[in-house]
Amino acid sequence: MPVKQLLIFDSGVGGLSIFQEVIKQSSNVNCYYLSDNAYFPYGELDENQLIERLIMLLTEFVKKHPVDIIIIACNSASTVALTSLRASFSMPVVGVVPAIKPASLKTKNGVIGLVATPATIHRDYTKQLVKQFAADKSVLNIGSTALVKLAEDKLQGKTVDKQKLKAIFQPWLSREIRPDTLVLGCTHFPLLKKEISDCFENRVALVDSGEAIAKRVALLLKDEKLESDKVQYPVSYDAFYTLRDEEQCLLERAFINMSFDSFSLFSIKK
């Protein structure tokens, strides 16, 4: 049976949290990881520009590296471009969106905290999720790019600054009734689960999309129609990025720790 080919895509390295969940449930797969770090962060791009960039970049990538499934491991990209991407590719495209629904089912005190990048917080898609699944709950929002930086510091082997972390969540920590459930609405944030839980004295449930995405991918992989032209043994993990800079070099440590085999620059003609 051919080894299936997956592509995990993100604007940065947050998609590693999705990678970890996916290989827990689907270990016998080859995995490409493509980071469009040349355009990071995606939340600062115009929506039409973002969609155009995604279609162009992913089209060129899968021409060179055929895959069975594309995983968009970026909330900013998913909340804007999933419909367009699914219309552009023949293989399944799986996206991540803030886990509002499971958080709404899990909360006991009816207070949910959604922490994401500012762009994801303000997307109409996110607001619609809240309206659809948590209209009867109190949903508090924190939009943070600083938390992204703290997650990348951890991936680089640096000690997470607990004071900076606590400052981000202070608006919730100072409330008389705190959220009992937090939605981690950026794929970087599950990389800080322990630190965030400690910040709340371990009295909070943390919810993200990783496990649900992994289950969806595992189900799709059972489809015998998905058969790559490329059969490769043993299983390999290969990382690509669109900009080679000092920051990328520092982050390669995280990929090495997760058993990635290679790092390559992937560029396209504009």
Description:
The protein folds into 2 domains: 4-96 and 211-265, Rossmann fold; 100-208, 3-Layer(aba) Sandwich (Rossmann fold). The chain is 43% helix and 18% strand. The protein has helices at 16-25, 47-64, 75-88, 100-106, 118-122, 124-133, 146-155, 162-173, 193-199, 210-221, 246-257; strands spanning 4-10, 29-35, 69-72, 93-95, 111-116, 138-143, 181-184, 205-207, 237-241, 262-265. The strands form 2 sheets. It has a 6-stranded parallel sheet with strand order 4-3-1-2-9-10, with helices on both faces. Strands 6-5-7-8 form a 4-stranded parallel sheet, with helices on both faces. The longest helix is centred in the N-terminal third of the chain and has 18 residues, at 47-64.
Strand order of the largest sheet: 4-3-1-2-9-10
Number of strands: 10
Number of helices: 11
Domain module count: 2
Helical content stands at 40-55%
Structural class call reads: alpha/beta
Shape: globular
Concise description?
With 270 residues, this protein is of the alpha/beta class. 43% of the residues lie in helices and 18% in strands.
